[in-house]
């Protein structure tokens, strides 16, 4: 109704509303703003031909993914374009404008229902507070900055060593939020003197720690870099947060930290442990958020697939049975903000992400959305699992237990009970091994710190 009203109000945008489709049969024949309800979604193919329809708009921001998939398939058979409105996580203020109509994205087809997140509660710890985001130029970090900007922080501090991408984010924030008070700092989280200076000068009250090395095969071949950035860098920021009495600290983690089989996941599990150990002795409330793959993030399969499709294929899939959990970047970042608001300290939050998605199905859907036919126009090639990769991923480990929270589908992992007293010494020893670049000893030390870590391969210098 809102979309049609906007179309009639702005005829210059060249949208001519012909009819509604609704699965409630009692609405058929009724008119809204003079536009008739023509039938149900099963009638789309017939209606498209009868009325010479050129475009179908799915005006259901909260639609389950199977509804979107069905509508896309029907439009494909009818030979008409299919567009949609942003999901509930993209359209927070509830306003509907014609400019919001967009192409269907692969995240719209995910086999899971979005989690309802109380953004008002999340905003409480952001409004009028100094907020620091590490890794601010990355996929999660930059989206966190966009979301945080909506809730009037006193100052938003953006820290990253990637000066190119942080420049573009800075330009975007300046244009979209001219009233926003923000500070951009180019630097490395491993630089203890710089981190101490930032905390002393800017006095952040809430820290979102998104900086990390996350490429699985690259980290498998470069364990020293993975440990240095993901473990040592996290320790530096965690220690500074305690020293300068930060109120809340949220670590961005990953499902690859669960019973890890590779270097990257193991370093992220150790970074979770760094956070939990510090929480035991600090007034700062430390917590982590663990989630699966983020559609469209840097390093995810979607940008890789898109590039491969642009080049005419093949689209490469590691294994026909490989599955992963997926969520949109908007949902992921809002989960992070929600967890930062409700955390009492020491928790690892996880999301009920529904059913995992087959990577090969994701590839096929993306090929179709690009206007091609899988295995006809664009071939799909199976390449085999890479070092450190697994067929399936879990959100909790064999030594962990899930506890429900007051938030729908947001759960917390009960402390797995690792030995806290010895852990600080272990981290120190691990950091010393990094300096020596003794990769075999690095593997062995991480195995002793994370017993569930399965050493699959040994890296070579």
Verbal overview:
The protein is of the alpha/beta class. It is 39% helix and 18% strand. The chain is built from 15 helices and 21 strands. It has a 9-stranded mixed sheet with strand order 9-8-7-10-11-12-17-21-20, with helices on both faces. The chain has a 3-stranded mixed sheet with strand order 1-3-2, with no helix packed on it. Strands 4-5-6 form a 3-stranded mixed sheet, with helices on one face. A hairpin with a 5-residue loop joins β20 and β21. The longest helix is centred in the middle third of the chain and has 21 residues, at 223-243.
The strand count comes to 21
What is the makeup of the main sheet? 9 strands, mixed
Strand order of the largest sheet: 9-8-7-10-11-12-17-21-20
End-to-end span in angstroms? 62 Å
- Average pLDDT figure: 85
Derived from helix and strand composition plus strand pairing, the structural class reads: alpha/beta
- The Cα radius of gyration reads 24 Å
- Total of helices: 15
Assembly classification = single chain
**Helical proportion, percent range:** 25-40%
Query: Which percent range describes the beta-strand content?
Result: 15-25%
Residue stretches low in confidence (pLDDT < 50, at least 5 long) are 457-461
* Global outline: globular
């Amino acid at each position: 109704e809102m979309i049609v009203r906007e179309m009639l109000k702005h005829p210059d945008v060249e949208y001519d509303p012909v009819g509604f489709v609704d699965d409630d049969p009692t609405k058929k024949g009724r008119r809204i703003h003079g536009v008739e309800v023509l039938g149900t979604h099963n009638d789309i193919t017939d209606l498209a031909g009868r009325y010479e329809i050129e475009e179908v708009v799915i005006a259901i921001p909260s639609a389950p993914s199977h509804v979107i998939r069905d509508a896309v398939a029907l439009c494909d058979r009818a030979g008409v374009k299919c567009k949609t409105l942003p999901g509930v996580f993209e359209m927070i203020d509830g306003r509907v404008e014609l400019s919001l109509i967009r192409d269907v994205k692969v995240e719209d087809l995910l086999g899971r229902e979005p989690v309802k997140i109380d953004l008002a509660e999340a905003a409480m710890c952001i409004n009028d507070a100094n907020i620091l985001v590490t890794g601010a130029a990355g996929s999660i970090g930059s989206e966190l900055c966009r979301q945080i900007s909506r809730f009037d922080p006193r100052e938003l501090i953006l820290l990253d060593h990637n000066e190119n991408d942080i420049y573009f984010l800075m330009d975007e924030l300046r244009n979209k939020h001219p009233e926003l008070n923000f500070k951009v700092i180019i630097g490395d989280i491993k630089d203890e003197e710089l981190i101490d200076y930032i905390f002393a000068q800017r006095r952040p009250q809430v820290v979102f720690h998104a900086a990390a090395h996350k490429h699985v095969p690259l980290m498998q071949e470069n364990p020293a870099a993975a440990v240095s950035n993901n473990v040592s860098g996290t320790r530096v920021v965690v220690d500074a947060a305690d020293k300068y009495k930060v109120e809340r600290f949220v670590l961005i983690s990953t499902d690859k930290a669960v019973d890890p089989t590779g270097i990257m996941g193991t370093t992220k599990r150790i970074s979770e442990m760094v956070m939990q150990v510090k929480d035991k002795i600090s007034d700062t409330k430390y917590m982590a958020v663990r989630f699966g793959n983020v559609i469209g993030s840097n390093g995810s399969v979607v940008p890789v697939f898109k590039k491969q499709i642009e080049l005419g294929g093949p689209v490469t899939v590691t294994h026909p049975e490989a599955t992963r959990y997926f969520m949109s970047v908007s949902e992921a970042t809002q989960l992070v903000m929600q967890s930062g608001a409700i955390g009492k300290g020491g928790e690892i939050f996880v999301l009920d992400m529904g059913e995992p998605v087959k990577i090969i199905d994701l590839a096929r859907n993306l090929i179709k959305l690009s206007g091609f036919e899988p295995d006809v126009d664009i071939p799909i090639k199976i390449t085999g699992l890479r070092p450190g990769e697994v067929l399936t991923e879990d959100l909790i480990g064999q030594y962990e237990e899930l506890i429900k929270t007051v938030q729908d589908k947001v759960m917390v992992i009960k402390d797995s009970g690792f030995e806290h007293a010895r852990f600080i010494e272990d981290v120190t020893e691990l950091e010393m091994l990094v300096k020596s670049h003794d990769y075999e000893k690095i593997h062995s030390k991480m195995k002793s710190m994370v017993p569930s870590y399965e050493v699959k391969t040994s890296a070579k210098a």
